[in-house]
Amino acid sequence: MATEQEPMTPPEQPGETRSSTERPGANPPSSQQRAGTDPSSAHVPEADEQAAALDELRDRWRRALADLDNLRKRHAKELERVRAEERARTAGAWLPVLDNLERALAHSDSDPSAVLKGIEAVRDQAVEVLRGLGYPRYEEVGVPFDPTLHEVVGVVDTPDAEPNTVARVVSPGYGADGKQLRPAFVMVSKRQE
Predict the structure, then answer these.
(1) Tens-digit pLDDT profile for residues 121-170
(2) Is the four-CA dihedral 111, 114, 116, 119 of positive or negative sign?
(3) Global pTM?
(4) Among 36, 114, 117, 171, fewest CB within 10 Å belongs to which?
(5) β pairing state of 137-138 and 166-171
């Protein structure tokens, strides 16, 4: 009974490795392969370089994400600081108006015409505060109706006015240059028929 035996291969020497393509009975390695210029062995350093470059890119990407997150947080803090400063500046602009209203109330038992003059002065001061904040008052009559500046609350028949013009201002508007705090509430003249 004959058994098949695998051919014997020489034992590996220390420091010598056998490639997976080397099989017993295969062609012996070429001189290029023995000299270390095997094209497959040149591929390994390239792969290492590519892996290192990929790791570097991943690291830079993570750092960029962290920088972006820090920028968002810094911007949110800065925005809140600016908002707080603007609120304080606006509230501070209204303090003199409030002070003058309290003075007018303190003199409410005096001459009514003096109180009326005081209230008119406070109103003028409030209008000036709004103008200083970038919202001047407008209440022109006889101008063409502009839907960006006016809101119609009624239509009136005014024979001496051009049609579709502001005949009367019910409440003034505040704002300019496309920044409207409130449009003027107006009565508009209707077309003559």
Answers:
(1) 999 999 999 999 889 999 999 999 999 999 999 999 888 888 889 999 99
(2) negative
(3) 0.57
(4) 36
(5) unpaired
